[in-house]
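Intended use. Records like the one below are meant for learning the mapping from a protein sequence to its folded structure. Do not use them to infer anything beyond what is encoded.
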Amino acid sequence: MRHLALTFLLLLIVGCQPASEEPQPTEASNDVAAELAGNTPTQDTPTTFVEGKDYRVLDQAIEVAAFEPVPAVGGFIIEFLWPGCPHCQHFNPTIVAYELENSAVTVIKRAAPANERWALDARVFYALRGMGHRLDDELIGYYETVRENHNRLPTQEDINAFLTEHAVDLAAFQQAYDDSGITDKLRVVLQDMMEADISSVPTLVVNGKYVVTAPAPHSPGESKRYFALLDHLLKLNMAESSY
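Structure written out for the chain above:
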């Protein structure tokens, strides 16, 4: 598997460090997601959210790309991530839990091509998508396993082992990985990140307009407020659209 020499401007991101402190390791699994989902707040949760602290508003909204799913009636949330980022790995059960409890909201994961290694992993991400495999969470979980067990990023051999485990044809995957159409997708993702001034992952953007700046939750209690914030921004956008 070759590295991609990007022909467009690369966004400079120092690691994947979010604004909050280092979270404690959390297993990215459906069990954890289900546990968090059980703590989803009801509509009566009394919470106040502040623009400039919990979220910021974009002047130019990010639109759902043609290669992404059509948003559901409840709106959409875009997550910018890197599969190799520990913070993204720890955060994944949280966003999975929210998605499980909110079937009317579409969660769109975007792999960020911020440098050559990130672009390689983004190509793996989008090659699987292009082949019709929905292995986003499994891929993130695999990167986490390699990091925790070997203290490194996956090698070509690791990725081939992952593909084999999930019955992905290696030759077909290589063809999908080399497809020039993926480069076009990476350009879209990178351009949106640059225009929205997104410089760390994971970062959520609600309905293409509201960038979540509140710290990622590290506990079920914090998840309640975080889920309520996402609900608030989805409803806020709907209210503004009705004017």
